[in-house]
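Researcher: Here's my situation. A collaborator sent me these components and asked whether they could plausibly form a single complex. I don't have experimental data yet, so a predicted model of the whole assembly would be a useful starting point for our discussion.
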Amino acid sequence: MKNIALQYLQTALSNPQASFRDGQWESIEQLMQNNRILVVERTGWGKSMVYFLATRLLRDQGGGPTLLISPLLSLMRNQLEAAQKIGLTARTINSTNNEEWESIQTEMAADQVDLLLISPERLANENFRQNVLAGLAGNIGLFVIDEAHCISDWGHDFRPDYRRIVRVLQAVPANVPVLATTATANNRVVTDVQSQLGSDVIIQRGSLVRKNLKLQNINMPSPAARMAWLAQTIPSLTGSGIIYTLTQRDADRLARWLDINEISAESYHAGIAGEQKESLEQQLLNNEIKVLVATVALGMGFDKPDIGFVIHFQRPASVVHYYQQVGRAGRAVDEAYGILLCGEEDDNIADYFIRSAFPPQQHISAILRVLDESENGLSVGELQRVLNLRKGQIDKVLKILTIESPAPITKIGSKWQVTAAAASYQVDQAYIDAITAVRRKEQQQMRDYMNHSDCLMAFLQAALDDPTPSDCGKCRNCAPDLLLPETFDDELANRAALFLRRSYQPLSPKKQWPAKDMFQRSPLGAYRIPEELQAGEGRALSLWRDAGWGQLVAQGKYRNNRFSDELVTACVEMVEIWSPDPAPGWVTCIPSLDRPDLVPDFAARLADALGLPFVPCVEQIRANRPQKEMENRFQQVSNLDGVFNITDQCLEEPCLLIDDMVSSGWTFTVAAALLRQAGCSGVLPLALSLNSPRMD
Amino acid sequence: MMSNVLTEDTQAIILLCGFFGKDRSYKPLTLKEYSSLVSWLVREEMRPGDLLGKGHLDEATLAAGIDRQRLEYLLGRGVQLGFAVEEWQRNGIWIISRSDTDYPERYKKHLKDKSPPLLFGVGDRYLLKGGGLGMVGSRNVDEEGEAFCRQVSELCACNQMPVVSGGARGVDRISMNAALEAGGVVIGIVAENLLKKSVERMNRQAIADGRLLLLSPYHPNARFTVGGAMGRNKLIYAMADYGLVVRADLGKGGTWTGATEELKRDNPKPVFVRTGNNVTPGNIKLLELGAVAWPESVTKENLKERLAEVAARIKPKKTIKQPGLFDALVQPEEPVKKIQPDGETEAVKNEPENIERFPEKMPDTAYDILLPTICKLLATPLSSDELAGLLDVKKSQAQAWLKKATDKGDVIKLTRPVRYQDRKAATSRPRVTTGDRNPAVSIHGS
C-alpha cells in the first residue's frame, strides 16, 4: 500500500522523484487502520497531503468521503490542483456560498464528492445542522479537524465552536479514523488536545524552526511613526508580504495610507465578504499586490511559500499567535523578514480582548432569568427589548451557554428556552480565572520577547517547547548589521500624522426603527423611517481617544470642558473636503440638560467659522439616562422617546446637526426626523468623535 | 452529572437501530431484525460493539438475513452519529441501549426481546427503576374523569408511587401534572417531541428536582404518529406495577389496544379500570377481559395495601419464564438478579467483569458486607458525614458507598439538605411527620 500511496504522492506533486516527508506515510498508515492521530507540523510540511492520500486510498477501498472541518474558506489553489491530480473532487460549504449548497448536496448524494470542507462556525448554526449537515454526513469515511489547537482551552486561539466538535468526536465510534492537525501548539496544548480526543490518539510531531526568517523587533510608540517607517521601508523589501494589525479599523486605514504612498495594498479582515476575501488571497498569492494588511482573520492555513515579509503593526496576543503569523514568511525564499513593531496602544487593545473574552456573570444571569420567566422562550430581538444588553453581548452569552453540555438553554424554532439544566447552572469562575491568567502570562511573554536581547528565534522556539532551540545567526540580536534600518523620514511622519487626523468617519443614515411601536411620546412611529424624515450621510471627525483628533476631543470633553479652537478648524477643513450637496445653510446642535454649554458653545464657534447662522432650535424637554448607558438599539431608541422638541425657529434650508460623540447614531436619527418634521429640508449630522467601545 | 460516554455496544446499537440524519438510503433495523442479529451474536459469543470492527459482516448477513450493504451503510453512519449524539446530549437527552446496565430491568423482564433497543430520556436515570401506577386513557375526558385522574394522581404522590403516563393531551397530561403539583414522582413515556416537552416550565422544574423522567423509544424530535402513540402503551404498563385505565373507547384507539394487549400477555400487569355510572362501554368491556375495578375505598393511608390486595386476587400469574438467550447476551455485564418472593428483583452486587468469568458466586466485597448495616443506619436520614462518623471511615469512602447504593436503588438521596435514607424505610412505612424538612419525600398524613 505504501507504494501505491507513494505513486499517488508523486502524481499529486507532479514530481516522479518526490518522497514522503518524515511522518507523512506513518500518519496515513494509522488512518488506514481506523486510528486517531494528531499531527503537529509546521505550515508547509504537507498536512493536507496526509488527508488527500488517505482519502484516495480509503475511496479506492470503497469507503465514504472525507469530512474536513476547517476555518479555511476553501482549499488553496495549489492544494486543489494536487487533489485533482489524484482524482479527488473537493467541495466547500460555508456561509459565503449558500447558492451552491443544494447542488453540493446532490453531488454528495450521488457519491461524487471525495472531500467536503465545512467551517466550524457553520456547525454552530442550528438550521445548518438540521437541514444541510443531517443530509450529508451519512457515510463519512474519514474525519479531519484542521487547526486542532483551537480545541484546547489553553490554546491561543480557543474557539467555542471547537468545543462542540470535541464532543462530536467523543461520540464518533471507533470504526471512523480521525485526523487532527495543527501547525502551532506547545506541550500544554498538545497534551490538552490529546486528552480531549481520547488517550488512544497517536501524536506525530516535528520541528517548527524556520531557517530563512530574519527577526527584528522595533519599538515605535506613535502610530504615525510606524506608518512613516512602513511607507519608507516596504518598497525596499523583495516580494510581497503581510502586515498584521489588531483591529479592522487599523487594517483599513493602514491599507489606505500605503495606497496613498504608492504601495499597492488591500485590507483583509472578518468584516470583508467571503468572495472578496478569496479574491484578496489570490491577489497576494499572484503577487498582484505588494501588501495585504490583515487581522487574524487571515491566518489558518493560508499557504504562500514565497512571502517575503510579515510585519506586525501591533503586538499580537501571544507567542503562539506571533509564531503562527510570522511563520508564513520565508518558506520557499532564501531571505524573509519578520518584523514586530510595538506601539503605545498595544496594551490597551490586548487588555480589551482579554477582558471581553467571557461574558460577565450578570449578563448570563439576566438572560437565564428572563428566559425562565417567559412563557415560551424569547428570540434574540425580544431579549434586546427586555434587557439593556448589546446584541453582541447577548450573542456571546448564548454562545457560551450553548457550548455547555447539557446546555442550560436550547433553541426551539426561533426562540431560546431554558432547559432543566438551567436550575443548577453555574459559571465556572475558576476556569475563567485560569484562562484569563494564562492570557496575561502570554501577554507578558510577548513583552519579554519585545525586549529580549539574545537570539529571537531561539526565544520563540523555547516558548513553543521545540526540543532543540539554538541561535539563528540572522536575527536583529545575532547579526545587527544585516537587518533593516529603524529610522524614517520626518516629512513622511508629518504626512502620516495629517493622514491620521483626516481619518474622517462617515455616518450612514438609519432607514428603520428597531420595531414599529418604539415611540409613545414623540410623534414618530412605524417600522420604516420615511425618506423625508431620514438624516443625510454625516461625518465624525475622529475615533474616540484615537490617534489624530481623538485625544483632543477626549481632553475637551473631560478635562477642559471646552472643545479647543483646533477642533473648530479641523471641522471646517473636514466640511470643506466633505462638501455635502446640497450645502448646509445653518447650524444647530443636540442639546444636553447635564452639560448645557459644551456642545452649543462649540457649535456656535463652528457656525461662525463656517459663516453660517447658529440656530439652537432643538431643545431637551425631558431628562433621560445617558445614552451611552443604553446597550442595544431597543433601549437606545426608547431612551430618546419624548426627549426632544423643535422650536419654531427651525429653518427650511438643510442644516448641520452637531454633537460631540456619536456611538449608535440614534440620537442623530431621532433629532433629524423631528427637525425634518418641523420643516427642515435636510439634516447632516456632524460629530467630533465616533465612539469605539474598546477604548472607552 | 450524567455520563456522556456511550459504550461501544450502545454506539453499535444506535448505528443499527437509530433514526438520525436525513439520509434514508437504508432503513435502520426493525426490532425483529435487530433481535435476529442479536441471536446470532449470542451464538457467536460476540457483542454488538464487535460489529464496529472489520470482518464480521458477511457472517452477520448470512445469519440474520439482513442485506450486507444495508448493514455496512448503517454501521458507516459514525460521523453522523457523533453529530446526533452531541445534539441530544447538549439538550440534556441521554441515550441508553439494551446493553447498558441502567436499561430498565422492568422492560427486559416484561417485554423480553420486544424491549425497545434504544431509549432516549431526560431526567434522573435513577427513576428508570419505575414502579407505581401506569395511567392511560383517551385524549378526551369528561370533567368527572378529570377529577378522578387528579384524585388518583394525588394519592400516588402522597404514597411515593410514581405516576407513569404518556404525556399526551387528556388523561396523560392531567394525571402527570396533578402528580407533579402534589410533589410526586412522574415517568412520562412520550411518543413525540421529547425535547420540547422537557423544556415546558413545570416539566423542567420537576426534572431539575429529580421528580420527572421523560422517556421515549423514538428520536427526540420525532413528530406524533399513531403507531408511535400505540407502541408507547406497553412501555407504560411495563414500567409500572399496575395499570389504570381511566377511559377507553370500545374496540378502538390506543388505550383499548394497549389494555387488551396487556391483558393477553403471559405475565400481565394488574390492570385496573375506572368504573361507575358514567364510564364508557370500553371500560366495562375491559372488566370482562380480565381488568379489575379500581377499588373505591382507597385513601391516602391504605392505597398501597388496597392495590396489593386487589391485585393479589387476580387470577394467578403464570410462571415467569427464565431469561432468554437474548438477556444473556445483551446484558452479560448485568448484575445477577434474584427473584424475590414479592416479584421484585434486587441486584446482587458483583463487579460486572467478574460475572462472565465466575457466574456462580463471588467473594463479597466490603460494600456487600456493609450494605445491610448501612441500610439499617439509614432507617433515619443521615448525611454522608454522619454516616462516615458512625462507620468510622473517611467521608469519601462513605460517599462512594452511598453513591453505589443510591445508583443501585437501595438508598435514596434526599435534598435540602442532602441526606440519605434506606429506600425501604423511606417508602414502606408511612411516617406521619409535621414540619419535615423534606417535602419531596415526606408523607403528610391527615
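Model: Some features of this prediction you could bring to your collaborator: The longest helix of chain B spans residues 143-158. The two ends of chain B are 37 Å apart (CA to CA).
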